[in-house]
Amino acid sequence: MIADLNNVPRIFRELNKDAFSRKLSCPSFEIIHSSNTFGEFRYRRDGKKVVRPIIKVTDSYDFTEDEMKDIICHEMIHYLLAVEGKDMKCTHGNDFKLMMDSINSTHGFHISITKNKKEFKKL
To answer: What is the spatial distance between Cα 25 and Cα 50, in angstroms, rounded to a whole number?
Structure first.
């Protein structure tokens, strides 16, 4: 599955419903052409409020649907932690790890902090 502006928003909506209890408003989506970055979450701040959230996913790899879900869910964890004011800098600290472990065990995902690029089919 190559990331595009059809499948990334679809997977976001599915994950938002199933794993995030619809807590996240729909961000903007962008497809990037990166061999080094699989996904990225960016936003602007207005005080402590998250504004203009964007989730970016690379189209440089052919992921399985499960791999794509793991990547998007990883970025969604950053998004939720920013919205909740727990991690405005989008780090991989304790709050991130706790939420990642919870989602992995509850939903059978394989979200991780880093991935080895050699595991994926590069285009």
So the answer is: 11
CATH number of 7-122: 3.30.2010.10
Closest to 116 in 3D by CA, of 12, 39, 18, 36? 36
| Cβ neighbour number for residue 80 with a 10 Å cutoff | 22
How many Å is the Cα radius of gyration of the chain? 14
**Residue 79 C-alpha from the chain's centroid:** 8
Distance CA 50, CA 57 (A): 20
Domain boundaries, the chain: 7-122
pLDDT in tens, 44-66: 988 888 999 999 999 999 999 99
pTM above 0.90, yes or no: yes
- Round to the nearest angstrom and report the end-to-end CA distance of the chain: 11
CB 81 within 8 A of CB 69: no
> Rounded to an integer, what distance in angstroms lies between the CA atom of residue 29 and that of residue 53?
9
